[in-house]
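Hey, can you fold this one?
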Amino acid sequence: MKTLYFDCFAGISGDMLVGALFGLTPNLDAFKAELAKMTKFSSEDYSVSFEKSAKNGITGTHFQVHTHERHPHRALQDIEDIIMSSSLSDRIKREAMRAFALLADAEARVHGTTPDKIHFHEVGAVDSILDIVGTYILMDKLEWPRVICSPINVGSGTVTCAHGVLPVPAPATEILLRNLPIYSNGSPMERTTPTGALLAKCLSAAFLPIPEGVIVASSYGLGTRDSDIPNVLRVLLMEGSQKDSEGFERDRVASLAANIDDMNPQDFALVSERLFEAGALDVWSESIFMKKGRLGVKLSCLCAPEKADWLSLIILKNTTTQGVRRTTLDRIKLCYKIEKVQTSLGDISVKTAYLDGLPLRMTPEYEDIKRVAVERGLSMAEVRSIVSHEVK
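Sure. Predicted structure:
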């Protein structure tokens, strides 16, 4: 299993994260092409650059957005229009909007209002939108690896923003960081920005010391400040699972389960949706007989062990159960990769499973099959048949 480890020893910001991720998949033309899919922005609105530089002797990538925009005040609906009208992938759009919705909620709580009435200031600017969307573009290029984040250095002192001089961490940043491990180290400055806190919260499966695994690559994203601690974000690309002699991959997963006999069956759909949004690997339900012969439902969820506590909390909050059982399981799985394949119906993502290094089977991805079926007026079965025939 591929893992990205965000080492936030000097904090985290949006531009630092984009710079670090770009260092792991440095294709400027491909990155710009993805950004250009947001057609609500024109080439005159911004330009982007990546420059190799150094902070306190550490070489890394500095990401910059150049724009003539001044003091933009965009509402959540404005940002949604920019992102959802684009031709970015559904997952990138979904993850970016989930991030902005979380940010709107944090800002609303600071100002005592509702998310729909919030007008973003700094984070509504073109550069902040590109930081967030750009992060998800690069995560897509890296094939959405699991993310583990270190405890976060937030800094200290004060910061000047649209609302005046505020303590560090700024109020919205503090809300985003609630229930996450933070600390302060180094000379006074804002080391973690609202965008950085937001992306760490949205992307990370857990906040832990560096996990066990093999480092296969590393990259540093540079900030714009000088201080006693290098203003950089280190991202490690690690391989955590191990292959056995038969060519399988082995890892460990957590299995969560709850028996429920007093809940409206219609409500299980929302619980399942929230579990998947939070990173569940699988969610399912089974009909069971409980005490006194009552018919009940066993709700089960499979997830990475580091997500078990968070997903258990989702089950407790969104169902009528009083407890969640947890077991840790060894898992054997096939190696696989997902690639875009050209077909007569357009580009389709195809998952190829391997055994002993040889292709075992190829399966078109459901979301692409569904998209093409809608676009072409075909049935799912027709699209699947055509694609499966062409990719053999």
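The mean pLDDT is 89. Let me know if you want another pass with a different chain boundary.
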